[in-house]
Amino acid sequence: MTSFPWAPGFIDGDRPKIVTSRFQYEDSHTLERYLATGGYEGLRSVLARSPHDMHEEVRSSTLLGRGGAGFPAGVKWGLTPDGVFPRYLVVNGDESEPGTYKDRLLMERDPHQLIEGCLIACYAAGLSRCFLYIRGEMALAQERVAQALNDAYAAGFIGKNILGSSFSIDIVLHWGAGAYVVGEETALIESLEGNRGMPRLKPPYFPAAIGLYGQPTIVNNVETLSNLPFIATNGAAEYTAIGTESSPGTRMVAVSGHVRRPGVYEIINGTTTFRDLLYGEEFCQGIRDDNELKAFVPGGGSAPWFLPDQLDLPFEGRLVGAAGSMLGSGAIMVMDSTTDIPAAALTLTKFYAHESCGKCVPCREGGTWLMRILDRVVEGTGTTDDLDLLLEVGGSICPGDMPHAASADLQLEATPFPYKMTTICFVGPSAYVPVHSALTLFRSEFEARVAPSRTRSRIPVTAVGAGS
Amino acid sequence: MARLTDENVTLAKEIIDRYPRAKSALIPLLHIAQEQDGWVTDEAMRQIAELIGVTPAEVLGTGTFYEMFKFEPVGKYLINVCGTMSCALLGADDLMHAAEEELGIHEGGTTDDGMFTLHRAECQAACTEAPCLQVNYRYRFRTTPVEVRQLISDLRNGRLDDEIPPHGTLARVRQHIPADKGVGAVDPSQVTSPPEWITASAEGGAS
């Protein structure tokens, strides 16, 4: 239970560590430290095996993608069509989901671990060039990864005939420039091709089949790839021994907001509960000022909200989905009893409305309208009609039942995740999610600040030329 | 100065060569232009278009999608106060007010002396360290209004010059792929067979 001045935000604990094992060292980002702590040993052992064999190892580890969707990495690698080359690896380091940061720490604190993960993925899946896309606003991560790449090239870990083998690969560092939607994998590919970062339609543009330059492309998250050196060195069995069968290993989770000790923790996947995280001595140690917990966002700004009713759920994708939300990118935002719920929802809706790329009408128009209507409700100039209007506008982005949490107080049953959507990607629905959660679970707070609707005078419409 | 310097053109060409298709270098090259001039000029965009073989309109079209590129001069220091949820819950508004007062400008404005531009930014991925801000994308964690005023004064007096480069400088360490080590980029249409280690390792490992 230690924090390190060189890793602000990260809190260490007496738990199994897979991706943060070097954070305790101030020089964890250097090649010297990496090599002194078993670095690139995984790569060495992988090069002595067949790519197919290593791919199977990752498949049997059930390593789940850490970007948000939680799709198994080994399965993803296998989705490329047979016999189509070249294939590319695109590393998604465009982390920008509200509440989330783990990839930034992994890039700043252990860039060689990520690089080794990229090399292992390229070797196993036959990917012949790697593009490492890092969010533009992360200047330190850019510098640390650039330095690590330079050092790894010089030492022969990247480039032609790595460690004297037939394995040759370049890793190209690519600078992002500030656009949340680019975290969506097809938008990431568009951006990498030098275009506006707008998501592509799926089908047909599933990256594994038609990705970068129209070629099969694997897009993996930074945290996902950072797990590979451990799996390569220690084997899938040791990896699956941590966590649960459906959610093995560990996860990086950022808990922020109204807790006593906000921080980024590497937790055991699948078993750690939200109560452990929010109240546990080794984690956040309870709500600030001994306030009551009001609500929390369990999986990044896009996730439907949870109430204290859901505290005993473990950090496990399927259970959280059944309870009406998602684990997403591993970010919990905590609201205590002092929180102005409509205003809190507005900060998130504003975010997604701002980040809409404009490609899909329901998101471009709907997100903005949600923001404007909610804004006037928060400012106290809204009416009761506005609350229904919010749900109506939201319903055009996410038609049908919206997932939400159960509440004993409200005698409300949970509606499971996911929702239906009229947009290509999740930005549009994400603008609606906080509005829907807040309105469903805290409607009285909205009603308290809107005026009753006046009956509007309507101008009757008559056909041109009709009448006298 | 608006066209890229010879040194930057060399750098631009080195970056272009890393990609199987030149247009992929568009965003990195806009960063180089912004680093040189503090913002992205029309002349720089024209030159980037020539370098990668697209129209200037395409460069502008891509560039305007991205928050970080500025198409008119901004302050030497761009202060981005995060306003998304965790920061909002823990006092982001107070930081913004302190900055506005200290600088005598509103959110979105630039000071007359061209030193500071103040923006409200979206989530900066430091939510446990809320409220936070960035100056030219360098963090300040768990900040208070008093610290914001101090920060502005320090920046004004050049006391943070070593830590915070002028706006536009993205990373002071750049990737460099040595000519004798790099594999090189190949247009995908020129490749039809699996990579060497896949064919070579049909019977075992690559080593």
Written overview of the protein:
The complex is a heterodimer of chains A (468) and B (207). With 468 residues, chain A is α/β, with parallel strands linked by helices. Helices cover 37% and strands 10% of the residues of chain A. Chain A has helices spanning 31-36, 41-47, 51-61, 73-77, 103-109, 111-125, 139-154, 185-192, 222-226, 228-234, 236-240, 274-279, 317-322, 341-355, 361-379, 384-397, 427-441, 443-447; strands at 88-93, 129-134, 171-175, 217-221, 250-257, 263-268, 293-297, 331-336. Chain A has a four-stranded parallel sheet, with helices on both faces. A four-stranded mixed sheet of chain A has the order 6-5-8-7, with no helix packed on it. In chain A, helix 7 links the parallel strand 2 (129-134) and strand 3 (171-175). In chain A, helix 5 crosses helix 6. The longest helix of chain A has 19 residues, at 361-379. Chain A is globular. The model of chain A has no long low-confidence stretch (mean pLDDT 95). In chain B, helix 2 (26-37) runs antiparallel to helix 3 and helix 6 runs parallel beside helix 7. Chain B starts with 5 loop residues before the first helix and ends in a 7-residue tail after the last helix. The model of chain B has no long low-confidence stretch (mean pLDDT 95). Chain B has 207 residues and is α+β, with helices and mostly antiparallel strands. Chain B has a four-stranded mixed sheet with strand order 2-1-3-4, with helices on one face. Helix content of chain B is 37%, strand content 9%. Among the domains of chain B are: 6-65, Orthogonal Bundle (Arc Repressor Mutant, subunit A); 77-156, Glutaredoxin, CATH 3.40.30.10. Chains A and B meet through helix 7, strand 3, strand 5, strand 8 and helix 14 of A and helix 2, helix 4, helix 5 and helix 8 of B.
In brief, what are we looking at here?
With 468 residues, chain A is of the alpha/beta class.
